[in-house]
Amino acid sequence: MRKILSFLFLWGIALIAQATHNRAGEITYRHISGLTYEFTVTIFADGTSPAIGRKDIEVDWGDNLGRDSLTVISEDDIEPDRSVIRRIWRGNHTFPGPGTYSISISDPNRNSGVDNISNSVGVPFYLETELRISPLGSFKNNSPQLLNYPIDDACVGQPFVHNPGAFDPDGDSLAYEIARSRGIGGTIAPGFYFPANMSVDPISGDLSWTNPDEPMLVNVAIRIKEYRDGVYLGSILRDIQIQAFPGCNNRPPNILSRQEYCIEAGQSLIAPIQAVDPESNQNVALSVTGAPFEFTNSPATFNNSSASNPNNVSVSWNTLCEHVRKDFYSISVRAEDNGGSFGSVNLTSYKAISIGVIAPAPDNFTANPIRNTIQLNWSNGNCSEAEGYVIYRRTDSSGFVPDSCMTGVPEGIGYEAIGQINNVNITSFLDDNEGEGLVPGRKYCYLIHSFFEDGAESYASVEVCAEVGKVVPVMTKISIDSTDAEEGRIQLAWSPPDTINQQDFPPPYRYLIYQKENQNYNLIDSTLSINDTTLLLTNQQTDSVQHHFFVELWSFGNGRVKAGSSAKSSSVFLSSNLTDEEIAISWNSDVAWREDSFIVHRKGPSENLFSPIDTVFYKNFLDTGLTNDLKYCYYIESRGSYNLGSVQMPLINFSQIICVEPIDNIPPCPPPFTVESDCDQDELKILWEMTVDDCEEQFLAYRIFYSPTLDGELEQIAQVDGQTFDYVPDLEKNSGCYSIASLDSAGNQSELAEKICIDYCPYFELPNIFTPNGDGVNDLFEPIPPNNNPTTPNYRDIDSIDLKIYNRWQQLVFETGDPAVKWNGFHQSEDKMLQDGVYYYYCIVYERSLSGVKPRTIRGNVTLRDGDKNFNGSYK
Known about the structure:
Layout: H1 2-18, E1 22-33, E2 36-46, E3 56-60, E4 67-79, E5 84-94, E6 99-107, E7 125-133, E8 145-146, E9 151-155, E10 160-162, E11 166-167, E12 173-179, E13 198-200, E14 207-209, E15 216-228, E16 231-245, E17 254-256, E18 260-264, E19 268-276, E20 284-290, E21 301-302, E22 311-318, E23 329-337, E24 348-358, E25 363-370, E26 373-379, E27 388-395, E28 416-421, E29 428-431, E30 443-451, E31 464-467, E32 474-482, E33 488-495, E34 509-517, E35 520-526, E36 534-540, E37 548-555, E38 561-565, E39 569-570, E40 573-579, E41 582-588, E42 594-603, E43 611-616, E44 620-623, E45 632-641, E46 651-654, E47 658-660, E48 673-678, E49 683-688, E50 699-707, E51 715-721, E52 726-727, E53 736-744, E54 756-758, E55 769-770, E56 798-806, E57 812-816, E58 826-827, E59 832-833, E60 837-847, E61 854-864
Parallel strand pairs: 9-16, 18-24, 55-61
Antiparallel strand pairs: 1-2, 2-5, 3-4, 4-5, 6-7, 7-16, 8-11, 10-14, 12-15, 13-14, 15-16, 17-19, 19-22, 20-23, 21-22, 23-24, 25-26, 26-29, 27-28, 27-30, 30-31, 32-33, 33-36, 34-35, 34-37, 37-38, 37-39, 40-41, 41-44, 42-43, 42-45, 45-46, 45-47, 48-49, 49-52, 50-51, 50-53, 53-54, 56-57, 56-60, ...
């Protein structure tokens, strides 16, 4: 043992001797090609470390192919006052294939004096970065880059904020979470704990420490996760060190600026920033970091100035189309004061500013009608980096004007995407309504935006609108003339074109009429002239089927040539939803014309004729104040129009007639109830009230539900009539969960009332004396019944026991798991009556409860008396 201790002691001395006194750091990477990545290990360490001259560090690539030793490429003294050295190692590695790899270093050792890590100088410094290489072959990914140093100062009693200054060169989304610092092999550093009131904002990455309450040197980690289109790509575990100094009355500076900017690519951004320190005798230095400053072409600039109070600076950025991306850029502003007369502790503040660079809208957007189509043309908006365009359409103008940060076409303004072009150089689109043609008399309006590879969208174009002329027939009537399951009638009508190109389509003309059946349109009839524009269909199922039609115009002057077709349109189809004293009706129609209003017609149970009862502008109506189980009949009169002078208005179409009866199908309210239980008497009663707020009605009955466990399904155990307001369950055990539901005169059951659970009433008590003399009184050592009532069981709600009885020499004389016990005073292994005297027991009682069996321990003693009196040896 002495040799082992000596070895451990010498090993610890060796670690300390070579310790680099590491304070903070991270591992980042960038993609080179294929499966090869360049990794950068950055560590901040004490410049006074005895091993600062050591140049190599070992990296575990996480691919089971061994480790590599990297040589330091730079050493910078970033804080001469505290002699903090930033050391950087860099090297390439090629992975064997797709997968998830944990790249790590474990380097002796941390610096001494870290308060939230036990014996920190003896704990290896561990960093880790996770890289996920997609099995789909998309290997190109670069990790976030961290621009702010991971060493910072705080003041006791003052709020502290630190930000890593992370940006992703690929534009991927970042998320942040606080993590524990690690030690040997990636295990949590021994003794690690989070300082009180410390957290990380998951979006901004701000590490906040609310009012450090004592001087301390702490290390924590921030895990920075990377996502692309919602897919996790990997993470960086950055270790950070913070020194909280005592006795400084300093307060951190304040940063004043806008939170968000949106700018059109090609325009210049000027973002003013002001830092003010609450201590008038202190000056503030400002620095700004972020992805916009890292671009090769036209990076953002920062007019840094000397420290002052207040300090006014600005960020300038001449944006380009290549800067367009889906996610906003984040720049991190850091303000640091000079400690003033209160001491040497400089305090910092951080603020994140978001900048969206948005592609300009496609310009020169026009819409020109060509027969029953509309030709759209535009210019590409000067951003050739776009992938293509999305085209949107709606009927009538929306008046949409986007704000400065709104890209694309938002939902909720009535526009629907009708096409996508995946080539930025194609700048035209013919809207023919997917081959169906556009409807004359409608005003069609359009918006368009470009899109980019990462999902970014440009601003939406200006809105353009156009109408097509009446060069094809238009449907004007699909009206139910008679409602019947077999012999219904439908009236059809349409209006001929205003103009026909007779050179291309010479007369005579004929209409062909098509009706939809089983998802297909079938030719059902034709006319003999262009002026023959009505048709009455008989023997139709109109009571339960919606009907769809369109007509085609054919020229027969030079062969057989189709001159155009109407848009497909449907009848108005009515349906209902029945409830207590109410009927809700709704209707569906898909027509070429504009539906302006709907008149609801009703015939009541004692009426011979229909009469209009309301005019509505939506396709639903609620009829109230009705009498249950009586018949009400309805039909809808639809009134519509075209923006065409040659079509007589209004267009009137009728739905089928439906006749329905309102029914009471609304469940009543559950009554409030209570449960009264008496463990001593082993009794339970359920009581409830007859009426509930907002639910005054006569209840037909009440149903009682029960489950023996907390999570069990409630099952009905009884039903009592509506004049009874209490119930005593007929159960072996009254413990469990109860609920109640009411039943109204129509047979509707309410929801279950919120259940009430009554726990078990466990009882188990042992006597302190028994007399096993065969006289029939107290002959057995067994539990005492509740209240010493011999008519009740000796114990209640006991699952089992573990009872052991010992003599005065601590020898086991009896044991059992049976709650009834029934010990007769015999030694269980020697099979003989024990001597009179005091015996000691230890018993674990396993009591039932709704949450499971729970143990309870009881200890005590029992006196055995008269064991040898009148005993013939046969009693056992």
